[in-house]
Design brief:
The protein is built from 13 helices and 17 strands. It is α+β, with helices and mostly antiparallel strands and 463 residues long. It starts with a helix and ends in a 13-residue tail after the last helix.
Length: 463
């Protein structure tokens, strides 16, 4: 990068930081300037309305009958009343403009901060020869019939793969099918199905050191999404058979059961056990949640994540690598799948006040988000209801979750949509420094700005 380009980068960075600070200040001052004391009062009313809505939603989920109906009305009516108050005093446009200014501040601030950082560590791609004897298991029921819709069997067989189409009329053990294929000389295992099926076959591939092919024919395809695969057209995943690369990713286990996404304990783990959950998810959840949330049903959990202990959460999610939590547009995605650490999300809410705290407090006491090498979930009952990659299981307590770092060789197409880059966390102190005086050290120098994106060298840090 030339000196002129570097200076231009510094100027863009400085003006982006200044723009972010100016937009944030305008967003905060606009209601005061145009509404005076009344504007501040209405902002306070909006915060109260947000708290009341959160509390009403808690009552909706944790109560039945007349109380639930009243809470639903309150949750729906409160935002309407708040908006009506702003309209009545002629300040709705002020709030709308203030919200737009805040969005501009966030965008501009992230632009300024993104330009100061090296690009994030990404999973290293390994060039390997194409498989000679790939073996694929296709579930025709998965994803509402995507296997047939996208002619996956025909396309895979044209590419030289041996294909087994699961029979919807009988129960088949995909683990045994995969083991038999390995014994027969298969040099790649692949699955078109849900995440639970993916995990079972992935464990066999990892055990034998074989590459694993993910075909995004499931309903949600969370694992495929975080691998950067095309979820709209699962047939593109087959390109990996002829023009592919390998990613070495982690595989997680709950005791001896593998999972590629997450293991859920507590509320969700209990809800998925209900017979009617698959056909009527919302109705089933509303029926059983009051007993679960008020602790009239289910075990009392204790979670030990390395050196941290979490007492009696109602819901616990242990994930194969951590989910994003600070980015609303990327919430639920995992930026990496090879960190060697489990993600842990735990929620404990015992009252409407604590429910309101979840949405108002920057760091609510009822929400824990951390990472750990090992997570042990204990209970005061002999068995735990677990949702493992969406599959309902009963497991003896305690359940030990662990992670096998980079144990799975996933073969993916060389050309694929990819995982969106996570935006940098807003740091207003840093933005003030950038806006006040941008020195040459504020922007990476020639070597940092011109080097290629940092790749994973196998040690967990940039190579």
């Amino acid at each position: 990068m030339s000196a002129t380009d570097s200076e231009r980068g510094q100027h863009r960075q400085a003006w982006a930081a200044r723009g972010a600070l100016a937009a944030a200040a305008a967003a905060a001052l606009l209601p005061l300037v145009y509404g005076g004391l009344g504007g501040l009062v209405l902002l306070a009313v909006a915060l109260v309305g947000l708290a009341v809505t959160a509390a009403a939603l808690w009552w909706t989920l944790s109560r039945r009958g007349v109380l639930r109906a009243a809470a639903m009305v309150l949750a729906a009516a409160t935002p309407v009343v708040v908006v009506a108050l702003f309209v009545a005093v002629g300040l709705l446009w002020v709030i709308a403009l203030s919200a737009l200014l805040w969005c501009a501040a966030v965008w501009s601030g992230r632009y300024a901060l993104r330009s100061t950082d090296l690009r994030p560590v990404r999973m290293k791609e390994h060039r390997t020869p194409p498989p000679e004897r790939p073996f694929l298991i296709l579930n025709p029921r998965s994803g509402g019939g995507k296997v047939e819709k996208f002619s996956l069997r025909e396309k895979a067989e044209r590419l030289g793969a041996q294909v087994v189409l699961l029979d919807p009329g009988q129960q088949q053990d995909v683990t045994e099918l995969a083991r038999s294929a390995v014994a027969g000389g298969a040099d790649l295992l692949g699955v078109a199905g849900g995440d639970g099926t993916q995990a079972l076959v992935a464990a066999v591939a990892a055990e034998h050191g074989l590459p694993f092919l993910v075909i995004s024919a499931g309903t949600r395809n969370h694992f495929a999404m975080d691998l950067g695969l095309d979820r709209d057209d699962p047939s593109t995943c087959l390109d990996a058979l002829t023009d592919g690369v390998e990613l070495h990713v982690d595989l997680a286990f709950a005791d001896d059961r593998p999972f590629v996404n997450n293991a859920s304990f507590g509320v969700y783990g209990a809800v998925v056990q209900e017979p009617g959950y698959r056909e009527a998810k919302v109705g089933t959840a509303l029926e059983v949640l009051p007993d679960l949330l008020t602790r009239q049903r289910g075990p009392r959990l204790t979670v030990r994540a390395d050196d941290t202990t979490l007492t009696e959460p109602q819901a616990v999610l242990v994930s194969n690598n951590a989910y994003r939590t600070g980015d609303p547009f990327g919430f639920g995605r995992r930026e990496r799948l090879n960190s060697g650490r489990l993600g842990v999300l735990a929620v404990r809410v015992d009252s409407a006040v604590e429910a309101a705290e979840l949405v108002l407090e920057p760091n609510p006491s009822g929400l824990a988000a951390l990472t750990a090498h090992e997570v042990v979930v204990e209970a005061d009952e002999a068995q735990l209801e677990v949702g493992l990659d969406g599959e309902a299981l009963l497991m003896p307590a305690p359940v030990r979750c662990r992670i096998a770092r980079r144990a799975l060789r996933v073969r993916v197409p060389r050309v694929r949509p990819g995982v969106p880059e996570a935006p940098p966390r807003l740091d207003w102190r840093r933005l003030r420094k950038l806006a006040a005086a941008v020195s040459r050290t504020a922007v990476p120098g020639r070597s940092a700005r011109t080097r290629p994106p940092a790749a994973d060298d196998g040690s967990g840090g940039p190579s």
